Amino acid sequence: MNKLLAEEMYYLMVLGRAFEYGAKENYMKGNISGFLHLDIGQEALSVGAIKAFEKGDIFSGYREHIMAISRGLEPKAVMAELFGKSTGVSGGKGGSMHLFEPSHYFYGGDAIVGGQLPNAVGCAYARALQENDDGVMAIFGDGATNGGAFFESLNIAATHKLPLLFLCENNEYAIGTNIRRTAPFREQAKKAEPYMPTYEVDGMDAEAVYEVVSQARKQIEAGHGPVFVEAFTCRYEGHSVSDANSYRSAQEMAHCKARDPIEKFKKALHEKWLCTEEEIQNIEIKAQKAVEDAVKYAEESPEPEPEALFEHVFYQEHKNVVS
Amino acid sequence: MLYREALNRALDEVMSADDSVVTLGEDVGLYGGSFRVTEGLVEKYGEKRVIDTPIAELSIVGNAVGMAIGGLRPVAELMTGNFSLLAFDQIINHMAKLHYMSNGKIILPMVVRFPQGVSRQLAAQHSESYEQMLSAVPGLRVLSVNDVNYAYHALKYAILSDDPVVFIEHELLYNKKGEVDFAQKLDPFQARIAKEGSDITIVSYLKMVDDVMLAVPEIEEALGCSCEVIDLCSLNPIDYETLIESIQKTSRLVMVEEDHKTGGYGAQIISWAAEEMFYALDAPPLRLAGEDVPVPYNRSLELSSIPTPESIAQDIIAWGKNNEL
């Protein structure tokens, strides 16, 4: 990591948090509806991991706004998607949980817990067959590690030595149920240990996430097979905006927030990268402005045309469809 | 050529022409495929393109989706329809929806081959049909061909298509003999007139088309009429044009399917006819389908749970006599 990258990551983290608060505000105003899963508290993980995995394919779940933006998707196109507008990443047809941008090798955006894992395995198989070294990163929560898709994916990825990085964001909650109530241990990497090398990292530390994911990426690029990284993190908000987060105590939340990833990284910017207060403030102002612009863009963007309803059901239309 | 050889030939040709085509499934490689459809392919194209998978259906389809995203053209084989239920999350939530949810950005050129149906005493967990569910999912093309020539052409078309296709096969069709016209250009989404006739339109698909054809001579003799038999070939989209043309000619409609009657696929054809063709019909439509029971093991119980050539003939003759034919 260098100063330029550190500044970029700080920008993305601050932007990400402001974006999420902006989305929450607009949810309350009624501009955004449906399910909205906020990534506040997990910015170090989302930004650090994506920046460390700059080239390959990324498959993620439904808490993916900051990942998408870190991958290079325009904040305004992401916000417009949340607003359901035609200018959104997915033309307003996907919403918050379904952000896809193949030109950035970013494949969302999956709202079935663990559903993206078999897809990531298949894509990694394709990359291996094509002798493409970039590999694939699959991002999922601790909740996904209890499902069948997870175990099938570990098995297949390890059998074929696929270039696949499993990144588990362990925030200890599957919606409102603590992982200790549904699994025999807190560390989900234990499930992957028989299959592949596993690493643990503090998911609240962007620099550490960046370093560990970078190392893991190099390992899969070298053709040694899949790697598992588990990052322990903390979701500040409820599972989605409609979740009041009542199952976690004030003490637990205070403990979480004492590890705040943005504060931690800001400190590093000062101490390690010798950024001035002014430089940091400028980054924060720029991020705030980007979110304001994104909201304005989303507000002003047109609704999808009525014809959009029938577009892209299939790639090739067929003449025999009469009904 | 046998039906399974026609499928094998189609796979072989596209795999030979395009390195991005791979096939995956349980026992498709060294074993040669449980219905021998993939026989010989692993020797030609290697284990990396003819992939023996674990018995993990969710991953078979889920990996195929990821392969398609990654630029391959996967042809996944599910060993039998009932096992596909483990893969339905990937079939419905991913394979069928990613193109639409991404506003057309994700393109999935993939095929899921889907053997199904009542074979011979395989009991309730190996005998069911799922075209009613599959054809009800927007975003999936569903092909189900009866004819050997169509098997070759339709599978080739499906693999070369850029849309996700479920290619339903009936387990008792694999050893059916027929001629393949390799040079022919045919549209697998167009229904096939298996037999021309002027008085009754009998619509069916997959194996039941053969059973209907076996029943037709007796029906024609008993009723003194001529039957037109339509093999749908494509269950989604439906070739309504061919149906309209036939019903306008015959004014009578019979639907024959193997699947359980309640909620079965043929209900779509009959309800469409009731809505759109009501005044063209001279008699209430007849729908012959499997009983609403899990398929039993015992052979005579099994046979009485589905339409057979004998029951088809008997039921259509009785219906014809009741309706002044």
Report on the architecture of this protein.
The complex is a heterodimer of chains A (323) and B (325). With 323 residues, chain A is α/β, with parallel strands linked by helices. Chain A has a single domain (3-310), classed as Thiamin diphosphate (ThDP)-binding fold, Pyr/PP domains (Rossmann fold), CATH 3.40.50. In chain A, 42% of the residues lie in helices and 12% in strands. Chain A has 10 helices and 9 strands. In chain A, the strands form 2 sheets. Chain A has a 7-stranded mixed β-sheet with strand order 2-3-1-4-5-9-8, sandwiched between helices. In chain A, β4, α6 (148-159) and β5 (164-170) form a beta-alpha-beta unit. The model of chain A has no long low-confidence stretch (mean pLDDT 95). By secondary structure, chain B is an alpha/beta fold. Chain B has 2 domains: 3-170, Rossmann fold (3-Layer(aba) Sandwich); 192-322, Rossmann fold (3-Layer(aba) Sandwich). Chain B has helices at 3-17, 41-45, 57-69, 88-95, 98-101, 131-134, 148-160, 207-223, 240-250, 266-276, 299-304, 309-322, and strands spanning 21-25, 50-52, 73-77, 111-116, 141-144, 165-170, 192-195, 200-204, 227-231, 233-236, 253-260, 286-290. In chain B, β8, α8 (207-223) and β9 (227-231) form a beta-alpha-beta unit. In chain B, α3 (57-69) packs parallel to α4 (88-95) and α8 (207-223) packs across α12. Chain B starts with a helix and ends with a helix. The interface between A and B is large, with 50 and 52 residues.
Widest sheet of chain A: strand order?
A: 2-3-1-4-5-9-8
The structural domain count of chain A equals 1
Q: Strand tally of chain B, please?
A: 12
Could you give the order of strands across the largest sheet of chain B? 2-1-3-4-6-5-10
Tell me the series of helices and strands of chain B, N- to C-terminal. Answer: HEHEHEHHEHEHEEEHEEHEHEHH
